[in-house]
Amino acid sequence: MTWKETEKIIRKRFSDKIQKWIVHNKNRIYVDIRPDDLVEFSRFIFDELHARFIIASGVDTPRGGVEILYHFDFFQLPQVFSLRVFVKKPGLEIESVAPAIKGTEWIEREIAELFGVRFKNHPNPAHLLLPEDWPEGKYPLRRDQ
Amino acid sequence: MSEIIPIGPYHPLQEEPEFFRLHVEGEKVVKLDIDIGYNHRGVEKLAESKSWDQVVFLVERICGICSTSHPAASVLAMEDLAEIEAPERAQYIRTVICELERLHSHLLWLGLAGHFLGYNTVWMWSWKYRETVCDIFEKVTGNRQSYAMFKAGGVRRDIQDMDIPWIRSSLEKLKPALDMFKGAVMDDPVLHARTKGIGVLTPKQAKDYCVVGPIARASGIAIDVRKDNPYFAYDWVKWDRVVLQEGDVFAKAAIRILEMYESIKIIEQCLNQMKSGPIDMKVKELPPGEGIGRAEAPRGEVFHYIVSDGSNFPVRYKIRAPSYVNIFSNEVACIGYQVADAALILAAFDPCYCCTERMVAVEPKTQRKIYTGHDLIRLSHEKTFGIKKELGLT
To answer: Residue B81: closest CA among chain A residues belongs to which residue?
Structure first.
């Protein structure tokens, strides 16, 4: 499938859920969506469009929340497709993608411990990098601490 | 009742320390727990306190074996952010460096794999020819490892025209060695018995665990950043991506051997096509925004994501090394095989832990059996010798 076809399917399927479609350049696309739509969106592109999950990245922003990007690419296509969600403080809660995509399990554990984001329904919400006796409520990559 | 064999955590593997807990019933592995983070260095946090120029040197120190993959992804991310492209000659030089690194990394792995299997001759020969590659590195970059060649907008050192004939003849000498390794691995009945059908990762599992690099390509998933999202000079030269279907240890070894031929092909073409010209360009400040860089390291895709606020320091620097996704898939690749094979399966992913003897068990509360790295290598050797005996080769 070409990128044009892929883009068309995604735009059609999620026309009401895409908040912003940003083309940084022809190979880098960022799409803003609501946190509630993330699981459905990722599951669809992973199962139906054979997207590969690359990694997720978190950034603590001064706008009162943590921005999480789920980066995907599509089989043999050059585009990196990044789904961007904004998780608000103080709750910092979002539904986990791990039940839908096994490969997101580790990075969600990492974001949880480094940023304090709580991933609901994560299959194994243990520490990944930090030791088990790491103090509660201390998050190394948070800027407000 | 399953028994637990802990492996790790404090041995420095080839690249990163990990802790594997093998749950076994008799000789069979029934479950695998993986713990990482024993030597978390906080490079991402550290990068936020380094200037963009320094970041390239910092990420070069993430891995000692594929030390140029991270700078490659890093400069690509910065160039993506600044929307610039390095000059043509710089792109060729970068490609040569990346492919030389693939050669030395695959030869290193091949040597260790030979050692685990009880083929110490393969180990010695493979590392002997790795020296040739390191010599080229020394001549071209001044260093055998951590070459410090890359910077945003170009490279730091040129490849001198007078060195090119020598580089070509050194590569020429590597070819018969590769033929020898190919023969040693592909035609050896004992190696077939030890590696075929062992540690199989099915295409479905490979997709679910989102694996990359030779691990994905050994399971029939034809992904390679060099082809899919060509960077540097990869789409200016002719080469093939190597894909096999079996997903076992044999396929993972074969992929690496066959990829070395492609690497030599790429380097030779780069040296032929390279025209004289500038090797870098002036990069002013990086603008605010975000950038993504990805490069195909010997072990798979390296991914860097950067956020800039227009200052001289990154706001966020996210790094995803290939082993981060590949190791995780050991959870399924080891299940159902013997302990003697588990050592090999974990090694086939390329973070080889068996290379040291510093693996000792913990678990003081229970009376669990303790296996050291030495025990695992011994188990693996015994199995190889057992097969040799059966085949009447000893």
So the answer is: A24
User: Which residues from A are below 8 Å from B325, CB to CB?
Assistant: 55, 103, 106
Same topology for domains B3-39+329-390 and B43-324, yes or no? no
The secondary structure of residue B93, as a DSSP letter, is: H
Q: What is the pTM of this model?
A: 0.91
Q: Tell whether B320 lies on the interface with A, counting CB pairs under 8 A.
A: yes
A20-77 pLDDT, tens digit per residue, is: 999 998 899 999 999 999 999 999 999 999 999 999 999 999 999 999 999 999 999 9
pLDDT digits (tens, 9 = 90+) for B158-215: 999 999 999 999 999 999 999 999 998 888 888 888 889 999 999 999 999 999 999 9
pLDDT at residue A18 in the model: 96
Contacts of A50 in chain B (CB under 8 A): 207
A59 touches chain B (CB under 8 A): yes
Q: Which of the residues B36, B207, B329 would you substitute to probe the A interface, choosing the one with the greatest number of A C-beta atoms within 10 Å?
A: B207
CA B350 centroid distance within chain: 6
Number of CB pairs < 8 Å for A and B? 82
Residue of B18, B201, B316, B323 to mutate, interface with A, max A Cβ within 10 Å: B316
Pick the CATH number of A3-120 from 3.10.150.10, 3.30.460.80, 2.60.40.10, 3.90.280.10: 3.30.460.80
Task: Check if B136 contacts A (Cβ < 8 Å).
Answer: no
The Cα of A95 is separated from the nearest Cα of chain B by a number of Å equal to 19
Domain boundaries, chain B: 3-39+329-390, 43-324
The residue of chain A nearest to residue B37, with distances taken between CA atoms, is A129
Query: Which listed CATH number (3.90.320, 2.30.230, 3.30.390, 2.60.40) goes with B3-39+329-390?
Result: 3.30.390
Class of the CATH-defined domain B43-324 = mainly alpha
Q: What span, in angstroms and rounded, lies between the C-alpha atoms of B212 and B218? A: 10
The Cα B270–Cα B132 span in angstroms is 19
Q: Indicate the average pLDDT of chain B.
A: 86
Within chain B, which residues score under 70 in pLDDT?
1, 7-18, 350-374, 394
What lies within 8 Å, CB to CB, of A139 at 6+ separation is: A113, A114, A115, A116, A145
Using CB atoms, pick whichever of B83, B223, B294 lies closest to residue A25. B83
